[in-house]
Design brief:
Layout: H1 16-22, H2 37-45, E1 50-59, E2 69-72, E3 77-78, H3 87-100, E4 104-108, E5 121-129, H4 134-145, E6 150-154, E7 163-167, E8 180-182, H5 184-193, E9 199-203, E10 206-212, E11 218-222, H6 226-237, E12 241-246, E13 262-265, H7 272-275, E14 282-286, H8 293-307, E15 313-316, H9 320-332, H10 337-340, H11 356-372, H12 375-378
């Protein structure tokens, strides 16, 4: 099967085995690990086996609960459900699932919770992930990277639930992994049925969970100062994959940013767009540590490059005076005012933040508003 333009989607730039091998995870998990398809591909390729817990639905249907994932390896429990009122119940269920190798469906009710919750109940499914599924998750990660449409379908009934990856078009250049289904018409129908959001639907008497392959947003922090650490940590907790770039290695290290996916040292921020693979789905924050002479040339260089990438969001910390000076310089270099107007400076909602933590709340709130399409209603100061 090919696209309407006659071309098959190119999933073959790297073999699936290479993608999985390149992302093999260390033995331990971090509370900041992003439980993405890329993470699972690497974890499983490294021989890992774990219990995956997924919220199928909640009452009331609070936005963002369905599709929430957590992982238990038998030793470590990580993900948002660790902090839920039913954490102990879910931890025990995951351990039983790992021991019996049988999936479980857990209904979390108010009387079972240890503290008040934003939801009255949650329907959670616990399944075993095996190393044999590494290629399937690697293909899902590849599709997310290329914005290919598809979704997971999971049948959470019976002793052997079926997890399938459903794509519009077949992968090219390698043998399709087990568990792959290709049907363009079915994929479009299912995505329409679930409104492109995780949902539990029925097929006759059988419940089926649908989870679209929507790629998690990527936040690139250009500059690794104290504010960037706070912004990155909060953004990770809010569902962003975080990358960091700085021209000094001490400010772009995994030690300083343990929650980041990539930490890159880039002297002079040369060839920034290519080095960080910035695309239309990226959120980019320019957060240089020193707004004085030391970083003055860098901020202009960074912003000029990022504007050519057509990133989804570009934010710049600093004052309005700094913004006007930079914009005038860049306009004199030929950048249209319409493109400069898309840059958010100062980045973040106007809450008069005084500390790095307060600034992080204001900035991440703006990022979430951009994702939700509500930013114009919130930026009342402009």
């Amino acid at each position: 099967m090919t696209r309407p333009d006659g071309q098959a989607p190119d999933h073959s730039l790297l073999p699936l085995e290479s993608l999985a091998a390149d992302t093999v995870m260390p033995g331990g998990l971090s509370p900041d690990d992003a439980l993405t398809e890329e993470f699972f591909a690497g974890f499983l390729a490294g021989g890992g086996t774990a219990a995956l817990l997924t919220v199928l639905r909640s009452e009331p249907a609070v936005a963002g609960y369905a599709g929430t994932r957590s992982l238990h390896t038998g030793r470590e429990f990580t993900g948002p459900l660790v902090h839920s009122p039913w954490a102990d119940t879910l931890r025990e269920a995951a351990l039983r699932c790992l021991e019996s190798r049988c999936p479980q469906r857990i209904l979390c009710l108010p009387q079972d919770s240890s503290r008040p919750s934003a939801v009255d109940s949650m329907d959670v499914f616990c399944e075993i992930l095996e190393p044999s599924q590494a290629g399937l998750f690697a293909l899902a990660a590849r599709c997310q990277l290329r914005n290919e449409r598809g979704l997971w379908t999971v049948e959470p009934a019976g002793q052997a639930p079926l997890r399938r990856l459903c794509l519009e078009y077949p992968p090219a250049g390698h043998t399709p992994p087990q568990g792959l289904a290709v049907d363009a018409e079915a994929v479009r129908g299912l995505l329409e049925e679930c409104k492109n959001r995780p949902a539990l639907v029925r097929r006759g008497q059988r419940p089926v969970y649908l989870e679209p392959l929507s790629a998690p947003p990527v936040l690139l922090l250009a500059g690794g100062g104290d504010e960037a650490v706070e912004v990155g940590r909060l953004a990770r907790q809010c569902g962003f994959v975080v990358d960091v770039v700085d021209h000094e290695p001490d400010f772009a290290s995994a030690t300083r940013f343990p929650f980041a996916r990539n930490c890159l040292t880039l002297p002079g921020y040369t060839d920034l767009v290519r080095a960080c693979a910035i695309g239309r789905s990226h959120f980019v924050l320019v957060m240089l540590r020193n707004h004085g002479s030391r970083d003055h040339g860098h901020d202009l260089r960074i912003l000029e490059q990022i504007l050519s990438s057509h990133a989804h969001y570009i934010g710049l910390t600093g004052s309005r005076n700094r913004r006007e000076h930079m914009f005038a310089t860049l306009h004199a270099r030929g950048i249209p005012r319409t493109e400069l107007a898309a840059v958010r400076c100062p980045a973040g909602l106007a809450v008069e933040s005084m500390t790095p933590a307060q600034a992080a709340v204001a900035i991440v709130a703006e990022l979430l508003a951009v994702r939700a399409g509500t930013l114009n209603r919130l930026r009342l100061d402009e």
